Amino acid sequence: MQMAPADLRSQPKSWELRQIYGCFPTGVAAVCAAGARGRPIGTAVTGFTPVSLDPPLVGINVLMTSTTWPRLKAAPRIGISVLSQDHDRAAVLLAAGASDWVTETPHVITAGGAVLIDGATAWLECAVDAQHRAGDHMIVLLRVLSCAGDPSHHPLVVHGNRFHRLREL
Q1: Alpha helix ranges (H) inside 74-135
Q2: Nearby residues of 16 by Cβ (< 8 Å), 6 or more positions away
Q3: Residue 129: enclosing H or E segment and its boundaries?
Q4: Which residue numbers delimit the Flavin reductase like domain (predicted)?
């Protein structure tokens, strides 16, 4: 059995924190909306969490230097798609800021302008509720306006900064 380390690092460097944070498995969510000209814009986040049932809120974490977030937050509705294990390519394209995710990834645009990815395991149509600066990130609370899910699609999981598939125990 492996014991906890006796010498924890104080004042860890960014690359060390990234490695440590990568030890926690997490899902991948696409955060997308119709831009000012109606063309979909989006990004991928691993910092997504349910926050509250009443009122219905979810949270995402966005890098302060993101050039996509200012355009997303201007949209009246934002779509959150919890990506399935078949969306690894879409996740890479969205995370890289590549615009070709739009042509390579089937999606729908809701009447409110939220962009939802086909084949995801869950979809949420949201509006920005609050934003809080936290170090080099912005914590964004989103009010859930409508949602749906399909648990038959297994989620895409990131662990150790790599994509993985879930398997039942």
Answers
A1: 88-96, 101-104
A2: 9
A3: strand 122-134
A4: 21-165
Strand locations in the chain (E): 26-27, 29-34, 40-45, 48-53, 56-63, 78-82, 107-109, 115-117, 122-134, 137-149, 156-159, 162-165
Instruction: Identify residue 143 by its one-letter amino acid code.
Output: R
Q: What is the pTM of this model?
A: 0.91
Q: Is the peptide bond before 55 cis (omega within 30 degrees of 0)?
A: yes
For residue 93, being part of any structural domain is answered with: yes
In a domain, 20, yes or no: no
Report how far residue 28's alpha carbon sits from residue 121's, in angstroms, rounded to the nearest whole number: 11
For residue 132, the domain's CATH number is 2.30.110.10
| SS3 at position 39 | coil
Q: Tokens 């809701």 sit at which residue?
A: 110
Range of the domain at 139: 26-151
Six-digit token string for 144? 């859930």
Which among 121, 120, 113 has a CA at the least distance from the CA of 145?
113
| pLDDT (tens digit per residue) in 84-134 | 999 999 999 998 888 878 888 999 999 999 999 999 999 999 999 999 999
Total domains, the chain: 1
Helix (DSSP H) and strand (DSSP E) numbers for the chain? 4, 12
